[in-house]
Amino acid sequence: MANTPYPESYYAASANAVPPRPTLQDDVETDVCVIGAGYTGLSSALFLLENGFRVTVLEAAKVGFGASGRNGGQIVNSYSRDIDVIERTVGPRQAQLLGQMAFEGGRIIRERVAKYNIQCDLKDGGVFAALSAKQMGHLESQKRLWERFGHTQLELLDERRIREVVACDQYVGGMLDMSGGHIHPLNLALGEAAAVESLGGTIYEQSPAVRIERGANPVVHTPQGKVRAKFIIVAGNAYLGNLVPELAAKSMPCGTQVITTEPLGEELAKSLLPQDYCVEDCNYLLDYYRLTGDKRLIFGGGVVYGARDPANIEAIIRPKMLKAFPQLKDVKIDYAWTGNFLLTLSRLPQVGRLGDNIYYSQGCSGHGVTYTHLAGKVLAEALRGQAERFDAFADLPHYPFPGGQLLRTPFAALGAWYYGLRDKLGF
Ligand SMILES: Cc1cc2nc3c(=O)[nH]c(=O)nc-3n(C[C@H](O)[C@H](O)[C@H](O)COP(=O)(O)OP(=O)(O)OC[C@H]3O[C@@H](n4cnc5c(N)ncnc54)[C@H](O)[C@@H]3O)c2cc1C
């Protein structure tokens, strides 16, 4: 079988060393078979192992091959949809549960890093930057809202204060979340995979699930083996393809691109982001950036609907970076790559059960570093028979994309064009 390598990213180039992992070539038996070794799969596996389940993880390529090993590394709390929108959709009780969980993912990451001694350049502090008075007003109302759910660590930044944390003169203000922050995402995934193995879990790489035999005793087939399990967790997200047609129908893979500069040196790096916080702006099609451990700038932005790989990533993202930081005009770009996240029509994650024993979580629509860690905990709770928090997610309404799989890309692109125009015109 072909050995799928990581994409040529800064993360792959600076990944911690890991032992080679086997390809599944047998017929094995386990309690839970997890499909996909991104954060959703690894977090589920870890919580399950900590609770006494036997766990086997199947990964089509390598640990962290998907979005979890390619993302901007920003620990952004909450969901890709504002909690008041959620409240209007689902009512106060369910919104209360979801609101209380909105900042839990960041805590889980920190607990994992500390407990399993994961070397992933973890830094505290994330900034939401407002490009207009309207966006600043929105941040103010978000802060009030999050405080209602018990999240009181947020600090509003006026125009003077935001200049102290980011040397970009586009912003009128912002909000600092010290429970946000950033990590080397691939090294976080690799560290979590090592933790899974330290607890007795098995991870097979280059072992795609190609068929699921459903029923009371489900079996997951790979090209050379099979896993018999009591439960299956589907965690393939934007890379799952059509393995589970029900899930493919109501979501859409989208590409987003990231570039990494050459090392900037202490002085220049500090002049851009003196406290080393990560930043994302408040546009619908947002830009996000941060420094790496070795003082490069990682800058991401833009969306390609339908997950086609753009030919020249640097040509798309570099102008955005220079708009924020014209002082980087002579700086070289060392890496550029693309990755896929999974969009849902509501931009809320899809969580649920197919039959009695196949569980899934997917589609956090962009902000997934924290949510996926929470999802692992919530899925593990459900498998242990405590489904209240799982149900709060599972009961969120979801709809297929208009136009089905054929027309969902142009429809979504049209929607994004509209929101992009609103961002540009500032209304
Ligand atoms: C470029 C980029 C930047 C981003 N930046 C941020 C950010 O800064 N902050 C943030 O919060 N979120 C960000 N996100 C989103 C975030 O990375 C994702 O939401 C999150 O990593 C999804 O994790 P996951 O485990 O669900 O999916 P993935 O990490 O994509 O993992 C799915 C895994 O399943 C495997 N798989 C698929 N099908 C099969 C199969 N049939 N059998 C076996 N294995 C299979 C894949 O190979 C893959 O390894 C970004 C996403 C991208 C692409």
UniProtKB/TrEMBL annotation:
Keywords: Oxidoreductase. It comes from Pseudomonas serboccidentalis. It holds the Pfam family DAO. This is FAD-binding oxidoreductase. The keyword Transmembrane helix does not apply. It comes from the Bacteria. InterPro entries: FAD-dep_OxRdtase (IPR006076), FAD/NAD-bd_sf (IPR036188). The keyword Protein biosynthesis does not apply. Residues 31-381 form the FAD dependent oxidoreductase domain.
